[in-house]
Amino acid sequence: MRVTEIFHSIQGESSYAGLPCAFVRLTWCNLRCAWCDSEYTFTGGIEMGVDEVMERVRGYGCPLVEVTGGEPLVQKRECCELVRRLCDEGYTVLVETGGSLDASVLDERAVRILDVKCPGSGEESRNFWPNLERLNSQDEIKFVIKDRADFDYALGVIEKYGLNRRGPAVLMSPVWGEVDLKDLAAWILDSGTRARMQLQMHKLIWGPDTKGV
């Protein structure tokens, strides 16, 4: 598989934010979101076998692992094998996916963190909506919010798919430097949604442009 980086850091997002986590960041992405903060994953990387990746992850001695990208499901076969192997060894496995590809191919034991692309991303037409019907109660749905239009779009999706009434956690994450955090907090409070506002903790600690942390 093509791997951009493997590293050990603090999980900055999701309901697992703040926990030590081993990250496996795969190369390539099929989307080009306007606010993307990981364009360095689009090309390059190095070829690694699943056994080699597993050995690197074991070396961190960390029970929480995230497989991310780029878009990890672009390398569907290799990604699914890696996730299965990690689950078999007892890791808690998070898979962050951009939501344009079928996430049901992943091992059911993994936690799927599924992005729903809002208009501000420029990629909302690429959302693979059947994903929202196939999530488990342990899974999470993330909306990256650039402005009020994105927030209203997210509310529409939450209502249409009944996301406030069933299992998957709903996360709202501000585009770094684009939306006032107080505004997003107020929108969430005023709307009555059960969504969780999340900040990118790793950026607050190490800055927005640091890789491998």
Which labels suit this protein?
213 residues; alpha/beta; TIM Barrel; nine-stranded mixed sheet; 5 helices; 9 strands; 23% strand
Write up this protein.
The chain is of the alpha/beta class and 213 residues long. The chain has one domain: Alpha-Beta Barrel (TIM Barrel). Helix content is 25%, strand content 23%. The chain has five helices and nine strands. Strands 3-1-2-4-5-6-7-8-9 form a nine-stranded mixed β-sheet, with helices on one face. The protein is globular. The two termini are 21 Å apart. 38% of the residues are buried. The mean pLDDT is 94.
Highest CATH level, the class: Alpha Beta
The structural class is: alpha/beta
CATH architecture, by name, is Alpha-Beta Barrel
Number of strands: 9
CATH superfamily annotation: Aldolase class I
Q: What share of the residues lie within helices?
A: 25-40%
Shape assignment: globular
Strand order of the largest sheet: 3-1-2-4-5-6-7-8-9
Present the secondary structure layout.
Blueprint: E1 2-10, E2 20-26, E3 46-47, H1 50-60, E4 64-68, H2 76-88, E5 92-97, E6 111-116, E7 140-145, H3 148-160, E8 169-174, H4 181-191, E9 196-197, H5 201-206
Parallel strand pairs: 2-4, 4-5, 5-6, 6-7, 7-8, 8-9
Antiparallel strand pairs: 1-2, 1-3
Short account of what is shown:
About 25% of the residues lie in helices and about 25% in strands. It is of the alpha/beta class. Strands 3-1-2-4-5-6-7-8-9 form a nine-stranded mixed β-sheet, covered by helices on one side.
